[in-house]
From TrEMBL:
PANTHER family: NITRITE REDUCTASE (NADH) SMALL SUBUNIT, PTHR40562. Residues 19-122 form the Rieske domain. Signal peptide: none annotated. Keywords: 2Fe-2S, Iron, Iron-sulfur, Metal-binding, Nitrate assimilation, Oxidoreductase. InterPro entries: NirD (IPR017881), Rieske-like_NirD (IPR012748), Rieske_2Fe-2S (IPR017941), Rieske_2Fe-2S_sf (IPR036922). GO terms for biological process: nitrate assimilation. Pfam families: Rieske_2. One of its GO terms (molecular function) is nitrite reductase [NAD(P)H] activity. Transmembrane segments: none annotated. This is Rieske domain-containing protein.
C-alpha cells in the first residue's frame, strides 16, 4: 500500500484537496493498487487508458480488498463501462459510480482522480470523495 502525506489545493478549484499517491507507471494496465489517503484506503485502478479511484472496502465483507479485484468491462446502452469484481464474494462494482452491479442499493464511495504529466514523470492524484454534484 502506498502512503503519501503530500497534499495540495487545486488552484482552479481551491475547495478541493489533492494527494499525490503514485506514479502512473506504478499501476499496471488492467489492475489496481491501494493508497492510504487521509486515513482511508483507496483502491486506484488503471483500465483502458483511464484511472479510477474508489473505496477499498468491500461493503459485503467489510474487508479492504477491492484493489485486488479483477477488472473488466460491460455495456450499457451501447456504452462500454468498467467494473471491478471483489476477490472475496465476487460482487462487481462500476468503477466510475461505485454502484454494485448485482444490488443497485449498495454503492462504494468514489474519488476524484487527476493524472498530471510533469517531471520526473506522470503522477496520479486523488481528490475528495465524488458526490455526483457538479463543481
Amino acid at each position: 500500500m502506498t502512503q503519501i502525506s503530500t497534499s495540495t489545493t487545486s488552484a482552479s478549484t481551491p475547495e478541493l484537496h489533492w494527494t499525490c499517491v503514485c506514479a502512473l507507471g506504478d499501476i499496471l494496465p488492467g489492475s489496481g493498487v491501494c493508497a492510504l489517503v487521509g486515513g482511508k484506503q483507496i483502491a486506484v485502478f488503471r483500465v483502458a487508458g483511464r484511472v479510477f479511484a474508489l473505496s477499498n472496502l468491500d461493503p459485503f465483507t467489510n474487508a479492504n480488498v477491492l484493489s485486488r479485484g479483477l477488472t473488466g468491462s460491460y455495456t450499457v446502452d451501447g456504452q462500454e463501462r468498467f467494473k471491478v469484481a471483489s476477490p472475496l464474494l465476487k460482487h462487481t462494482f462500476d468503477l466510475e459510480s461505485g454502484v454494485c452491479l448485482s444490488d443497485a442499493s449498495v454503492r462504494v464511495p468514489t474519488y476524484r482522480v487527476r493524472v498530471e504529466n510533469d517531471l520526473p514523470g506522470t503522477r496520479v492524484w486523488i481528490g475528495d470523495e465524488w458526490t455526483g454534484s457538479a463543481d
